[in-house]
Amino acid sequence: MSDRRHWTLEEEDAMISILEGIVADGGRCDTGSIRPGTYEHVVLKMREKIENITIKAKHVQKKMKRLKDKYSAAYDMLNTSGLGWDDTRKCVTIDDPEILTEYLKKHPNKNYTANRPFPHYERLVTVFGKDRATGQTSNQKRKRNGSSTVADITKVFEKSMERTSTEIAKLTEAITGRDAMTRLGVELEGMCLNRMQVIRITMYFGNKSNQLRIWNGLNDSYKPNFVKAILEE
Fold this sequence. Notes:
The chain is mostly helical. Helix content is 59%, strand content 3%. Helix 3 (57-78) packs across helix 5 (121-128). Mean pLDDT is 78; it is low at 133-148.
């Protein structure tokens, strides 16, 4: 007889809520994986929450694996240029179907399909966010190996951003001159922007020297609105 169990929406929601509580209480290892004994603990909590439920640790383990595989597939899509998140529909969306076609050629998966609602994704970031076994950037091509630590992920991301920043600096320096871009960088640092926003704005001006001249001629009080307009394009 198959061990596969049908889960109701109530049961799935209850399990995720319990896992969120476990993570909040420190029930996750430094590597991000769930600590031993978690499945049994979830079973006990679910029996408290849902009357007459029939469930075993192996059911929880398999359900968590399916959710993690689905989360991992969606996570990797969201770290690919051209794919984004629709907060209203709660799903991964695409700007161009060809982008998804090319992505699936390189990263075939049956765990999640773009444009299909995934309402639990943001909650699963809390549960599985540090336990990623796939690449963390859109140009990272190593396969899942399950051995990545939080420190490894951070280093990969930082190195990727450093390489991107270096290439942007070279491009914009050649087009607009070192002094203009240096001034721009100093101004952006004082605007409480995150790294990706700074990179996006720098790339924008790197390809549009006329707009950079307009920027340099603006009163400082108008520049935050200029930045907002660029980010909303």
